[in-house]
């Protein structure tokens, strides 16, 4: 990722203007975030078919093991709903992850440290 910062160093070094430096740093930040976003989306594109296959296999397993149905064709209904709603569930899950994971990663470290310290204190007291 340091390679992305090299083109943005020239304006900072040559102009030595705070406004230009701030603009260059913002452009560098946008480039880095875009690179991470493209990487995350490509990984999700690879994982999504595997998740869909897992959903279908899991619903088939549930059909084979669930012998008590509350109403006729309940197992078949669950299988068909997972077959057709599986992609929508995966897409909604990916969208939720895109919005919640950055908030978790950008939390101040003090909050996380105090949380883990409280957890360790509880473990130590028992």
Blueprint of the fold:
Layout: H1 2-15, H2 18-65, H3 74-105, H4 109-125
Find the structural class using helix and strand composition: mainly alpha
Number of domains: 1
Radius of gyration: 24 Å
Query: What is the residue-mean pLDDT, rounded to a whole number?
Result: 79
Proportion in helices: over 70%
Runs in which pLDDT lies below 50 for 5 or more consecutive residues are none
Series of H and E elements: HHHH
Shape: elongated
Q: What's the total number of strands?
A: 0
Total helix count? 4
What is the strand content? under 5%
Give the oligomeric state: single chain
Distance between the termini: 45 Å
**Largest beta-sheet details:** none
Describe the fold and architecture.
The protein has helices spanning 2-15, 18-65, 74-105, 109-125. By secondary structure, the protein is an all-alpha fold. It has one domain. Helix 1 (2-15) runs antiparallel to helix 2 (18-65) and helix 2 runs antiparallel to helix 3. The longest helix is centred in the N-terminal third of the chain and has 48 residues, at 18-65. It is elongated. The mean pLDDT is 79.
Task: List the main descriptive attributes of the protein structure presented here.
126 residues; mainly alpha
